[in-house]
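Morning!

As promised:
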Amino acid sequence: MFENKDNRTELSELGEFGLIDLIKKNVTIQNQSSLKGIGDDAAVIDSEGKRTVISTDMLMEGIHFDLSYVPLKHLGYKAVAVNLSDIYAMNAEPKQITVSIAISNRFSLEAVEELYSGIFLACKNYKVDLVGGDTTSSKSGLALSITAIGVANDNDLVYRNGAKESNLLVVSGDLGGAYMGLQILEREKQIFVESPKVQPELDGNDYILERQLKPEPRADVYQMLRDLNIKPTAMIDISDGLASEIFHLCSQSGLGIELFEEKIPIDPQTFERAMEFGIDPTVAALSGGEDYELLFAINMADYDKIKNNPLVTVIGHFTPKNNGYYLVAKDGSKHELKAQGWNAFLDKKD
Amino acid sequence: MFENKDNRTELSELGEFGLIDLIKKNVTIQNQSSLKGIGDDAAVIDSEGKRTVISTDMLMEGIHFDLSYVPLKHLGYKAVAVNLSDIYAMNAEPKQITVSIAISNRFSLEAVEELYSGIFLACKNYKVDLVGGDTTSSKSGLALSITAIGVANDNDLVYRNGAKESNLLVVSGDLGGAYMGLQILEREKQIFVESPKVQPELDGNDYILERQLKPEPRADVYQMLRDLNIKPTAMIDISDGLASEIFHLCSQSGLGIELFEEKIPIDPQTFERAMEFGIDPTVAALSGGEDYELLFAINMADYDKIKNNPLVTVIGHFTPKNNGYYLVAKDGSKHELKAQGWNAFLDKKD
């Protein structure tokens, strides 16, 4: 990263161009297709007749992250990760990102370096190039906007609307962890607010804290699907929670769903913490969100290729639309599934 | 636009998906290359072997705009316009945009509709498709982040670093108007703060107010250059002010410049208001910014093709680097040119 200084440097000393230069100096271009990166009006990408895929996300301080417990480096990493996750969810490969930040004078240069060190680490890990963006000031707080650009052959692209009746519903990894990690962080913040001298108790929560603070987009699942020659019929990534994402796949594909509670993959640590907090672990998986796993539909014929694969779990199957949306509970009872996605406007009041 | 209602609708009534649906309903896809727009994880663009060009900008309330005198519709229009301007400055044609907004509960749905009506108008006027984005909430104020995607043949692209010694420096339109428009708006705001009953005096300032509130990217100049078979050797758009942009072209091309004050195109209304405000009109042009004109270098051989063209003016010529950066004043005296671009961190304190 940038040079490590102990003293605080005001952003005003650098100015916008100085900051851009600093960012630029730390960028290494990794893809031949990144013809033009930072330093011109726009980035230029060689598409070679393939499809260019663009995804964008905006993260606001106080809404999407709380800097009292999210280190800036993790924030930068996560901001990139969630965008790359969107590109993989198209069955495409991310190649470039643009990063725009707005920051108030409350932040020092060192803070910005910390943020970008996370951004650069994600770029390195996923072989993605930072090719542009914008840096500006904000009246209060930090705002981040990231656009990811990916590439795919036309016939490899997977949309949300392609699932077919009796397709299997498959999810990667496990669910609910990011949400339980957030509960731990919020609890410790509350304790800190009330008794600043008490050390935070984060031990034994490593996995769920990492799920919340440093999610990884499922590049490995994307690659596995290619290696196994499986093309999902529909795919989405889990940002708002399993239930909400299932609703997107179903409504866009014009189908119903039968989801099996006992099949929903939940890590033991997620399960234990949920029980301690008095939260039903299934609810954490259905409505928690921020897991950034891939949720997709495959043809029955592909079942044998993945049935023992540790990366993924079959959790249900699609049904005709008029069968509706159902969760089959562990006791065999059927419950109507409700979408409880994250509502940005309701959850967080001014 | 959306239906016009007199009563206020809270965003929380719609939720994020409701808002996205509303936006989606108002989008009409205009380009065949927009294969996938709003409604999936990412936008898909058919590049047909051409170059995909991406540009992004972030606009923050209180920094880039003041809603006490900028109507939301104009803000939306301008936010798109400035991004398209970046694409034209690459000698490329904009085709798609993504729009991310963060809004506090202070804004009603009607306010968001107003903002998007300006965005859609710019899309319509410049035949650009809105293909994605993000909508979220903010703790305070409005933040807008727009990414524009354009296309060009590889050999048509123009960068900042291609100018050659004795190339001519050419600018479109006229300069300093947007800055003087801003002075008028700030003066009237001040009067309003002191005496709310006094009607704002905006008469006779139509041109410069429009330059500030509703700038137009120079699609016509892009087209004219193609029609005349002129490929600039270097190009940039004027967002920070003429001097700052000249510095970018010179430093990236490794050249010096001789700029002629008397050639700098300034509209009579800009000139008059500058004199009234005690501002040197040349300084308004050099340092004011936000004109969104195209500034470019051409070979001497192309001079005859544009010498009487009303869209552009030759304002100087490039020199060897060690000749430095000079402004030749109206009286023939030479002055070292200083870059005085907009400094986002210095100008606006928290």
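Chain B touches chain A through 82 residues (CB under 8 Å).

Hope this helps with the figure draft.
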